[in-house]
């Protein structure tokens, strides 16, 4: 027999690929353990994907060890991982205080804002799994394409537009201001849309955020009846309020505690009332 | 190349208002912004909008409070324009549907704020900025204004005449974060910088991570003087662990500050015996830090802000957001316990030198909002004056760029031969500031389009260079070095040796930045690259702050100097100006304008 060296042609490409993958995983594991993170560290498992980078085209999870500190938020942990281990780790974030709505993520299986979620408050605070918002196209790592969300918002004519231009300061009762107050808190984070089963199955469904935006104007007494009717027509369409199956997932995940499901039901009642009027 | 009449850089309050203004004046306007507009940091503003709307108040009182609040280095024409235009702008917002808090009679509510002689802070709960931002964005959508979101503008396209006053701005260069495309944007009538603040210069800040002084750095390198950067506002009530802001509205509604001994510090130790907690921000911040340094801080780190006595009903009505912030970011229930607070970086009073119309000395280049220095805030901004600033000057710049005649401005811009009262500085810096090698951000070209295209090519080369480098320093190391040094040395209390120390550290950071590299080679959503570009802007801004702080040998407003414990009006009623000068910065001074429409604002001792 000649040498036992196998011919390259006989190599199992799958095995080779797995071996390479293993090697990279070990490298990453080593990299992420290098700095001294102390005895008490959390394990952060982060979804990775980049359509352009060879070893990230196939989605994977990377593991990072982050020192546990009082008040540590999931966003803090991500920033630590990025600045300490891997500067290519990509996620949107800006204000760090739950008002810009950039960092809605899928954390340990539910939609939350990274900045508003303390690791210690998670039911499993030892292993934190972070994924991009479900039901959205992933651009890279934790960044999703928000265009569809913005399109749905635009579809409800999301701006104050009374039939006649006001002349000077308009009055608004305290009660009416109170009525729309919760609906005006929306920060456009998209958590609600991502949690909604109906939206997942019907791409044209306006979704909780957009319907809530319509609610905000529909109930604002500074807009007139004529506009109200027009607004009802928009939200009453085939992919509007009637699609909601009252599963309350949007209400559960809303970081601003907006009673989204109730707002949708209230608009359904308004639509019924308005239709009865013409009987 | 993308072409519009007016290009607005930045989609926060100032940028949106500028775009609406330009649109109203008939221009084809586009907003180019590195964040989607609703993500902008205007949304984090809490307290309210100062405007003399009600009987018993008038614009002259507002203007006076503003000049006094700025410790008499505010330019009077700027303060008066702000005060005159603010009421209409607030009513305009109301007419666009902004959900302001309301009185029993249905009118918009106003509340007291620090340093105001009348309760003129018009508010929407403790989330005024959020409502303002969304209301303006709604109007942008309504008007169909083009928005290029997640496009990062990295350079303005400016021609290269020797004298910056002869240069012209023809647009800018932006990089599409999502795809990596680098494109020229031609602004036929004007390019308006509305890029916001510079909070990333410090490590304990109320600012967003996106606030990286982009506009200051771009205008500076193109030749526009940068004004009064040493005047940095440290807000007295930020949460100790994160820097999250607790609105001045909390004190406006009656919240009280206590030291660790349970003493009402503002009165007990004489920091402000008339207005107490509602003194101007610089006064309250120094009061708190003096207590902490004297060993009367809680846990040696912070003081207490107590609002429990206001009662749940009033808190829920007017300050509900504060409860959420204290709970989410400090784990404290503000209804049950006093909230821990300490001073934190909040706002840059200085910025790109402009006049009342937002114009800089470079034709076609404007700046508005926090990035600009009109100067309307002088050495200390009053709470509630940032939002009217971005409305008033945003609208004016938008209209002006679109060709509307707003009258002759009174505030001069640029270091021109005929400018009155200009003085050169003789301050010695411990290290050379500025570029390490000959550096210019201006380009030549026979036509405006050629200037934009040449700028795009130069920027492409810079960005490709960063991506090609295979090893080097990570930007995060450089940035954190700057943040630590600035927070340690150029904070509320400043002294010469510490500021010099910072200038040395900034120089080191600049050298390290030469070796910076981007590990992520992807063209898709490359935030590594974005942050690397931002870090150079942070370095430029930090340096101008430290240079101004070293130069200004007096104590005025937010600028306290250990060696100079008094305001020195005989010598220092002037603005600190820094010109990039193609990489070898020049420091000079321009007199403050205290001559108003109907009165001269004579500097008086500032008591609260």
- Beta strand % of chain A: 5-15%
Instruction: Note poorly predicted spans of chain B.
Output: none
Strand arrangement across the biggest beta sheet of chain A = 2-1-5-3-4
Please identify which CATH superfamily of the largest domain in chain B we are dealing with. Answer: FAD/NAD(P)-binding domain
Major interchain interface with per-chain residue totals: A-B, 58 and 64 residues
Examine the coordinates and then state which fold CATH places here, giving the name of the CATH topology of the largest domain in chain A: Fumarate Reductase Iron-sulfur Protein, Chain B, domain 2
Strands of chain B, total number: 22
- Mean of residue pLDDT of chain B? 96
Task: Please name the CATH architecture of the largest domain in chain A.
Answer: Orthogonal Bundle
Order of helices and strands of chain A: HEEHEEEEEHHHHHHHH
**With helices defined by DSSP (H or I, 4 residues minimum), what is the helix count of chain B?**
16
Please mark out the parts of chain A with pLDDT under 50 across 5 or more consecutive residues, or reply none: 1-10
Description:
The complex is a heterodimer of chains A (279) and B (608). Chain A is built from ten helices and seven strands. In chain A, a hairpin with a 2-residue loop joins strand 6 and strand 7. In chain A, helix 3 runs parallel beside helix 7, helix 7 crosses helix 10 and helix 8 crosses helix 10. Chain B is of the alpha/beta class. Chain B folds into three domains: 254 residues, FAD/NAD(P)-binding domain, CATH 3.50.50; 111 residues, Succinate dehydrogenase/fumarate reductase flavoprotein, catalytic domain (Flavocytochrome C3, Chain A, domain 1, Alpha-Beta Complex), CATH 3.90.700; 117 residues, Methane Monooxygenase Hydroxylase, Chain G, domain 1. In chain B, strands 1, 2, 6, 7, 8, 9 and 16 form a seven-stranded mixed sheet that branches. In chain B, strands 17-15-10-21-22-18 form a six-stranded mixed sheet, with helices on one face. In chain B, helix 1 packs parallel to helix 11 and helix 13 runs parallel beside helix 15. The interface between A and B is large, with 58 and 64 residues.
């Amino acid at each position: 027999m000649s040498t036992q060296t196998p011919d390259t042609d006989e190599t199992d490409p799958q095995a080779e690929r797995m071996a390479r993958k293993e090697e990279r995983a070990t490298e990453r594991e080593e990299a992420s353990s290098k700095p001294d993170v102390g005895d008490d560290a959390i394990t952060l498992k982060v979804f990775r994907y980049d359509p352009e980078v060879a070893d990230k085209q196939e989605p994977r999870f990377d593991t990072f060890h982050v020192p546990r500190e009082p008040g540590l938020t999931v966003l803090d942990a991500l920033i630590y991982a990025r600045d300490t281990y891997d500067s290519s780790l990509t996620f949107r974030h800006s204000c760090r205080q739950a008002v810009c709505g950039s960092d809605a993520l899928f954390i340990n299986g539910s939609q939350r804002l990274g900045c508003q979620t303390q690791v210690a408050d998670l039911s499993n605070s030892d292993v934190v799994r972070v994924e991009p918002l479900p039901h959205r196209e992933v651009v890279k790592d934790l960044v999703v394409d928000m265009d569809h969300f913005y399109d749905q918002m635009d579809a409800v004519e999301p701006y104050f537009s009374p039939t006649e231009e006001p002349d000077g300061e308009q009055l608004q009762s305290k009660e009416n201001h109170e009525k729309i107050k919760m609906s005006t808190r929306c920060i456009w984070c998209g958590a609600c849309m991502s949690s909604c089963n109906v939206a997942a199955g019907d791409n044209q469904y306006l979704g909780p955020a957009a319907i809530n935006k319509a609610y905000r104007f529909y109930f604002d007494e500074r807009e007139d009846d004529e506009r109200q009717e027009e607004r009802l027509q928009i939200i009453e369409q085939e992919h509007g309020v009637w699609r909601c199956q009252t599963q309350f997932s949007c209400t559960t995940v809303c970081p601003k505690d907006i009673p989204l499901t109730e707002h949708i039901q209230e608009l359904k009642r308004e639509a019924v009332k308005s239709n009865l009027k013409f009987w | 190349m993308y072409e519009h009449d007016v290009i607005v850089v930045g989609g926060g309050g100032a940028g949106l208002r500028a775009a609406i203004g330009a649109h109203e004046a008939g221009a084809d306007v586009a907003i180019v912004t590195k964040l989607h507009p609703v993500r902008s940091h205007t949304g984090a503003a809490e307290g309210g909008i100062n405007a003399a709307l009600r009987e018993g108040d008038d614009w002259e009182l507002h203007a006076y409070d503003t000049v006094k609040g700025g410790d008499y280095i505010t330019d009077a024409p700027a303060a008066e324009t702000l005060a005159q235009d603010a009421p209409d702008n607030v009513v305009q917002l109301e007419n666009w549907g902004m959900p302001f808090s309301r009185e029993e009679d249905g009118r918009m509510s106003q509340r007291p704020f620090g340093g105001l002689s009348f309760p003129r802070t018009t508010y929407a709960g403790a989330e005024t900025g959020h409502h303002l931002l969304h209301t303006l964005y709604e109007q942008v959508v309504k008007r169909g204004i083009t928005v290029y979101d997640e496009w990062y503008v990295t350079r303005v396209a400016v021609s290269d005449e020797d004298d910056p006053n002869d240069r012209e701005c023809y647009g800018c260069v932006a990089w599409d974060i999502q795809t990596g495309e680098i494109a020229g944007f031609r602004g036929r009538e004007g390019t308006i910088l509305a890029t916001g603040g510079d909070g990333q210069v410090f490590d304990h800040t109320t600012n967003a991570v996106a606030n990286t002084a982009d506009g200051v750095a771009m205008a500076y390198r193109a030749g526009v003087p940068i004004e009064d950067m040493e005047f940095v506002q440290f807000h007295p009530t930020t949460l100790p662990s994160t820097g999250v802001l607790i609105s001045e509205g909390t004190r406006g509604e009656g919240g009280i500050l206590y030291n660790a001994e349970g003493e009402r510090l503002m009165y007990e130790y004489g920091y402000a015996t008339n207005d107490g907690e509602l003194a101007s921000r610089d006064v309250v911040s120094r009061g708190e830090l003096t207590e902490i340094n004297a060993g009367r801080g809680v846990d040696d780190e912070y003081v207490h802000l107590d609002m429990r006595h206001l009662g749940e009903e009033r808190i829920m009505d007017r300050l509900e957001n504060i409860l959420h912030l204290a709970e989410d970011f400090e784990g404290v229930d503000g209804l049950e316990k006093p909230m821990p607070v300490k001073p934190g970086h909040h706002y840059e009073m200085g910025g790109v030198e402009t006049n009342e119309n937002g114009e800089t000395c470079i034709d076609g280049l404007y700046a508005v909002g926090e990035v600009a220095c009109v100067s309307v805030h002088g050495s200390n901004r009053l709470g509630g004056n940032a939002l009217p600033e971005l409305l008033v000057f945003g609208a004016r710049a938008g209209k002006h760029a679109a060709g509307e005649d707003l009258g002759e401005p009174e505030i001069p811009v640029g270091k021109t031969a005929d400018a009155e009262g200009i003085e050169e500085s003789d301050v010695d810096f411990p290290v050379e500031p500025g570029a390490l090698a000959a550096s210019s951000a201006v380009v030549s070209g026979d036509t405006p389009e050629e200037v934009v295209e040449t700028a795009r090519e130069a920027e492409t080369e810079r960005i490709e260079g960063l991506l090609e480098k295979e090893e080097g320093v990570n930007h995060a190391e450089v940035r954190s070095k700057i943040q630590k040094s600035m927070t340690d040395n150029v904070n509320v209390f400043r002294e010469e040796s510490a500021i010099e120390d910072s200038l040395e550290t900034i120089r080191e950071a600049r050298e390290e930045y030469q070796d910076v590299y981007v590990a992520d080679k992807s063209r898709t959503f490359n935030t590594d690259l974005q942050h690397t570009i931002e870090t150079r802007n942070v370095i430029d801004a930090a340096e101008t702050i430290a240079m101004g702080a070293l130069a200004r040998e007096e104590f005025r407003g937010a600028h306290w100097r250990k060696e100079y414990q008094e305001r020195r009006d005989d010598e220092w009623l002037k603005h600190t100006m820094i010109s990039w000068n193609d990489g070898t910065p020049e420091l000079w001074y321009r007199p403050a304008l205290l001559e108003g429409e109907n009165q001269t604002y004579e500097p008086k001792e500032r008591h609260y």
